[in-house]
Amino acid sequence: MTTDTLDRIAAALERMAPAPLTAPDFDTADAFVWHVSPDRLEPVATVNRVDMSLLVGIDRARDILLENTRQFARGLPANNALLWGARGMGKSSLVKAVHAVVQAGGLPLKIVELQREDLPSVGRLLNLLRGADARFLLFCDDLSFGHDDEHYKSLKAVLDGGIEGRPENVLFYATSNRRHLMPRDMIENERSTAINPSEAVEEKVSLSDRFGLWLGFHPCDQDAYLSMIRGYCDAYGVAIDDDTLRAEAIEWQATRGARSGRVAWQFFTDLAGRRGVRV
Question: Among 32, 49, 149, 268, which is least packed by CB within 10 angstroms?
Fold first, then answer.
């Protein structure tokens, strides 16, 4: 057998059973994104986030999550957290802002973003992070599960850790529009069709119970909506009087049929563009 043939066989075996992934240099960045096929952690040079001071109307959730994260960064016990509730009310923005505040306070903490569709690979990711010296905030945005979706079983490895236990240096934060991560009709269907309805429902609903912290986010009122926009204007130097801001912001809200932090930012983006201010 020729050397060329042996090289091709070795390359094929490497593709079928790749060598164990080596951990990157975690000192190169404070944020990473987990990718699969092949497995890798890619550093993020600049995190897309909003300053904590600009997050309005979520003071209680902010204080609880910030203190929980500080405890973890100090090596103290802390809970996994589920941020659930209304769309566009700053759930993911709060997680990224909390990470920035903890970092600025001199507590070393890395954040790793994990996509929902990559949950089956989470065991490999945890093994990679387990051996590192740093502490990691594992973040999954917009987490939810539908019919015939078995990914939720992979999440238990993060929350409970199985026989090995969750790595001591990893904490998991997730955001979702659903309090129980499952659509209500899915839960009701299980209750009505299962041989033992209570057991079928409990298996799915108990997933959210594995989060030590539940932080609810609710639609904002008009005053909070206007305060958000005023905060953006002051922070980025967009000059506008209160009466004009109020009239234009309310009209924008009416065209969208909703009020939220996301709608407030979208209005401000339009306003800043019209006023010739870069953000």
Answer: 149
Residue 279 pLDDT class (50, 70, 90 cuts): confident
Is there a contact between 118 and 34 (Cβ–Cβ < 8 Å)? Answer: yes
Is residue 148 located within the same domain as residue 34?
A: yes
What global pTM score does this model have?
0.83
Residues 265 and 243 in one domain: yes
The alpha helices in the chain, defined as continuous H runs, are 3-16, 59-73, 91-104, 122-130, 151-159, 184-193, 197-209, 222-236, 242-256, 261-274
Instruction: Give the tens place of pLDDT for each residue, 64-116.
Output: 999 999 999 999 999 999 999 999 999 999 999 999 999 999 998 999 999 98
pLDDT digits (tens, 9 = 90+) for 180-201: 776 655 544 554 555 455 555 5
Domain that holds residue 230: 222-274
Q: Are residues 103 and 140 in the same domain?
A: yes
In a 3-state reduction of DSSP, which class is residue 134?
Answer: coil
Residue-wise burial string across 78-89, b where 16 or more C-beta atoms lie within 10 A, e elsewhere: bbbbbbbbbebb
> How many domains does the chain contain in total?
2
CATH number for the domain that contains residue 110: 3.40.50.300
